[in-house]
Write a structure and sequence with these properties.
The protein has a 6-stranded parallel β-sheet. A 3-stranded parallel β-sheet has the order 1-5-6, covered by helices on one side. A two-stranded antiparallel sheet has the order 2-3. The protein is α/β, with parallel strands linked by helices. It contains 10 helices and 13 strands. Helix 1 runs parallel beside helix 10, helix 6 crosses helix 7 and helix 6 crosses helix 10. It is globular, with a radius of gyration of 20 Å.
């Protein structure tokens, strides 16, 4: 078998993000920003054999039966995100009316990377769309770790700060209060996620979005076989833990896995998050499986004005002929990642103000 290279998303972080002093901004929440992965573009089709139960306000619940020519149903992350944002907007408005508190999220960007700046801009727009106050600051690349830790301590003690999105570096990670770890990567949150009978205060946004898509599209998880491709701390590992919590039987495929296609072909659900374009071929997929493609990979395309196009970790052209459902890109996991960040921020504000 040809060799396959896996990329740990945690190792490809964007510009470092640090907190601000608060002298030029009124802090209502704080985010230490890290790039989160998006999914890729896919054309919508329909099932080979499909039963749909739907309403005007929620995505269809789909059950697929394989026939002679399967064409995958697209799991529409934009549609689900729109519904979630409407729900968050209503709760934010209710909180403001009842106790005068507006959840806040601040973004601290360190360095000049354009992708990081774009992410910050998207977060600001998302916050504004649901009524969450957004704050941001840009700091120089040479900002010290000591400055970060000093600000984290201050924000941990500030009751108006509802969330701290942080760098995935151990010292910083350990310093953030678990009650404000809206990113969901504090060791105590991950530990609680891994243990039966314990509940994390927050679940990592991208894996949480993957599971939410499965739920909202009525995909049965309990008792199913699931394969997670990739084992990063950001997506793969927490996704596997979440699936296990849903009573799925989990296999994790990684860079040392021999014959990974033999494992994925047994899976009813595949979550792919390795950062390798079109790695998962049609013959890796069990007929009727549901595919959640977290990957976002630029590949050269002379027909595109940008000179490239985005593809997923899954070869869509082949997968759509075998799978029963698949996430598109953009419009799949990407919008859900932002929606889950907003959801975690709202949950933090409610918990801090004893509304849960």
């Amino acid at each position: 078998m040809a060799s396959i290279t896996f990329t740990d998303y945690a190792s490809s972080a964007t510009a470092r993000l640090l907190p601000f002093t608060g002298t030029n901004f009124r802090s209502n929440g704080v985010v230490f920003f890290r790039r989160l992965v998006n999914p890729l573009s896919v054309r919508t089709t329909s099932f080979r054999s499909l039963t749909i139960r739907s309403s005007s306000t929620s995505p269809p619940v789909v059950t697929a039966a394989m026939g002679s020519e399967a064409v995958a149903k697209v799991i529409d992350g934009k549609l689900v995100t729109k519904k979630i944002r409407e729900e968050i907007t209503a709760e934010v408005s209710k909180m403001k009316d009842e106790i005068g508190v507006v959840p806040g999220l601040a973004v601290i960007l360190v360095g000049e990377r354009k992708d990081s700046a774009t992410y910050v801009r998207n977060k600001k727009k998302a916050c504004e769309s649901v009524g969450i106050t957004s704050f941001e600051v840009h700091l120089p690349e040479d900002c010290s770790e000591e400055e970060v830790l000093k600000f984290i301590s201050g924000f941990n003690d500030d009751p108006s700060v509802h969330g701290i999105l942080h760098m995935n570096e151990q010292k910083i990670l350990n310093a953030v209060s678990i009650e404000k770890d809206v990113d969901g990567f504090h060791p105590l949150n991950i530990g609680r996620l891994a243990m039966r009978g314990r509940e994390p205060l927050f679940v990592p946004c991208t894996p949480k979005g993957c599971i939410e898509l499965l739920h909202r599209y009525g995909v049965e998880i309990k008792g199913k076989r699931a394969a997670v491709i990739g084992r990063s701390n950001i997506v793969g590992m927490p996704a596997a833990l979440l699936l296990q919590r849903e009573d799925a039987t989990i296999s994790i495929v990684h860079s040392r896995t021999k014959n990974p296609e033999e494992i994925t072909r047994q899976a009813d659900i595949i979550i792919a998050a390795v950062g390798q374009p079109n790695m998962v071929k049609g013959n890796w997929i069990k007929p009727g499986a549901v595919i959640i493609d977290v990957g976002i990979n630029p590949v050269e395309d002379s027909k595109s004005a940008r000179g490239y196009r985005l593809v997923g970790d899954v070869c869509y052209e082949e997968a759509c002929k075998v799978a029963s459902a698949i996430t598109p890109v953009p419009g799949g996991v990407g919008p859900m990642t932002i929606a889950m960040l907003l959801s975690n921020t709202l949950s933090s504000a409610k918990r801090i103000n004893n509304l849960q």
